[in-house]
Amino acid sequence: MAESRIGRYLLYAVGEIILVVIGIIIAVQINGWVNNARLKSSNKVYLEKMIGELELNKIRMEKLISYEPTPDDPFIGLEEAVQHCDSILKLTYQGLDESGIQYMLTHSMTAGGSFLNLHTSVYDELINTGRLYTIGSDSLETAIKDYYLRCEREDQYNRVNTENMGESLDLIRRTYFKLAQDYYRDSVHFDLSHYPWIYDQRSPEYQDLQLAIGGVRAAQSQNLFKMKQIIQYSDSLIVIIEKELKE
Question: Which residues does 151 contact at the CB level (< 8 Å), separation at least 6?
Fold first, then answer.
């Protein structure tokens, strides 16, 4: 009888242990489901914010590419600036006359520097909190990192191009800017005969002007290409994020 009681006690104890283990497993499973649901909800918020950030970057690039000047803000977009540089450079190789000079005076060759100033606050938060590594699939994580690394690289290239353009603008300041300033300050008494070099293609001033226009065009053209690329990068990442949100 004693052995029978001991057997029943052992069986009961084993049953209790099994029930406790099952309860722990169920609790852990439920807790995992809850945490996963919270993580997914939090990731959704971050990804939706990132889409908004990408759209802001696109808007910024589109504005720099095709900016519409106003009386208070006369700067033009990069596309128009590059077109003006092309046209003016062709005029200088044909030989400038009064109509060509008038075109130069009334068509800006620069878009005013045009730094990228991209939005990265959502990405910075993901990096600083470590949330980037739980944001979703491995492919999504890679796509996000690739996008922002590309943006960082393009920003560096943009600054170098803009600095190089500054060197070309210095050449223009030593030649054409004085002519243009005199025209805008007192167009009534403006006289092209005061600037004989403008008709002499072999003069140092004329050749410096050509080199300067070519340098300004090249720098702005490269920046324009980079900005169009950023729009493409942004669109591609938005598609990947939206696909992740639907899964």
Answer: 57, 116, 118, 120, 230, 233
